[in-house]
Specification:
single chain; 4 strands; 1 helix; four-stranded antiparallel β-sheet
Length: 87
């Protein structure tokens, strides 16, 4: 008997905001993504190992890691200024 186990990343687009990219310097839509690492058994997700937040520039494709607080703050700031777009 054998067991198939491993890990898999599950990404979810949280929202899109328009910020100036720190890499290319262009004001472009930035996608805020939550990525969870899941442990799988026979390709069925069992539990989450960890969560990370990323911001991706739609102009240059640069991906930068965010803390949970940074992701929440950017969403609150964008909501207050009326520039957030839900997926």
């Amino acid at each position: 008997m054998f067991l198939l186990f491993g890990t898999r990343a599950v990404a979810a687009l949280l929202f899109v905001v328009t910020f100036v990219c720190g890499h290319c310097g262009v004001a472009a839509p930035q996608q805020i993504v939550r990525e969870r690492q899941k442990v799988t058994l026979f390709f069925i997700p069992l539990f989450s190992l960890g969560t990370s937040y990323l911001i991706e520039c739609s102009n240059c494709g640069m991906v930068t890691g965010l803390s949970r607080q940074q992701a929440e703050h950017s969403m609150q700031w964008a909501d207050a200024h009326g520039i957030a777009v839900s997926p």
